[in-house]
Amino acid sequence: MWTDIDAHISQVTGEKFQSSQRGSVSGGCINQGYQVSNGKGSYFIKLNQASQIAMFEAEALGLQQMYDTATIRVPKPICVGTAGNSCYIVLEWLEMGGGNSKSWEEMGRNLAAMHKCSPIVKEENQSFGWNMNNTIGSTPQINTWTENWTEFYIQYRLGYQFQLGRRRGGRFPQAQELLEAIPELLAGHEPQPSLVHGDLWGGNAGCTVEGEPVIFDPATYYGDREVDIAMTELFGGFSAAFYRGYNEVFPLDSGYEKRKNLYNLYHIVNHFNLFGGGYESQANSMISRILR
Predict the structure, then answer these.
(1) Which of 40, 126, 194, 222 is packed most tightly, with the most Cβ within 10 A?
(2) Would you say 214 and 137 are in contact if contact means Cβ atoms under 8 Å apart?
(3) Which residue ranges does the chain devote to CATH 3.90.1200.10?
(4) What's the topology of domain 101-291?
């Protein structure tokens, strides 16, 4: 397998690469992660079962689209493929571990710049969605192009998660009431389609040892930029410097404080679908709070 991966890296980069060192590193809760090196340079490689190749193809496309905006640093994707029973994605190796308040302020400014990026090719009805379906964690994320953000969010975000939740045995008694209320909850809010990370919690953002802000492990699509900002507040929150930098470049619209709970509900229901446990009751509490 490693010989095949080395050969693929060599083919794509045009430089002979033969890994002499391989070390296990965190690949998240879904994948196995490795740092591979030939003594001159390193790459980050994630492995999964060969059947999961589409997940890595979508991750590579999302990273490449974010990279091409030249706004915020992401690990540059090198190649994706299969070897034996495994699939892999090879990414630029970034040495993480630095950062201070200035770094996080820059993170906010850079993310705001990325959020100003709309779809390059706008065909009829191509506003919210993406080039392909991808995953949020290991859950399928449907990205069918939709002209209206409210319709997209009802059908392909919350509605779809509730469907999966019911199949898993979850009980969300007020789910249908909430879905029917979303047009009113989002009334008057007409966001531009922004390129969003899609899974922007603290574990998917950081800084290099030089202090440069980086985001990674995306669930990319074109959506309301507020979904990214809302998620940064969900699991502990980012530093105040981040929000200061963001609002300096692209101030949040009025009503965000009410919308953020609706947007974060998507992730809580997804966490129930992934992990079960207390996320069901947390989701139901959020639903009741939003409806009130």
Answers:
(1) 222
(2) no
(3) 101-291
(4) Aminoglycoside 3'-phosphotransferase; Chain: A, domain 2 (3.90.1200)
pLDDT given at position 118: 79
Query: What is the token pair recorded at 66?
Result: 């974010």
Predicted pLDDT of residue 104: 97
DSSP state for residue 146 in the 8-state scheme: B
DSSP result, 108-138:
HHHHHHHHTPPPSS--TT-SBB-SS-EEETT
Q: How confident is the model at residue 154 (pLDDT cuts 50, 70, 90)?
A: very high
Token pair 């001159």 is found at: 40
* 146-159 core/surface letters (b: 16 or more CB in 10 A; e: else): beebbebbbebbbb
Helices marked H in the chain — which ranges?
A: 2-13, 53-68, 101-115, 149-152, 159-167, 175-185, 226-232, 240-249, 256-275, 279-291
Q: Which residues are annotated as catalytic?
A: 199
Name the amino acid, one letter, at 112: A
Residues 200-222 have a mean pLDDT of 96
- Degrees, nearest 5: CA angle 264-132-57: 100
pLDDT score recorded for residue 29? 73
pLDDT at 123: 59
Closest CA to 88 of 138, 43, 154, 130: 43
- Which regions of the chain carry the CATH code 3.30.200.20? 2-92
What would the pLDDT profile of 37-62 be if each residue is shown by its tens digit?
998 999 999 999 999 999 999 999 99
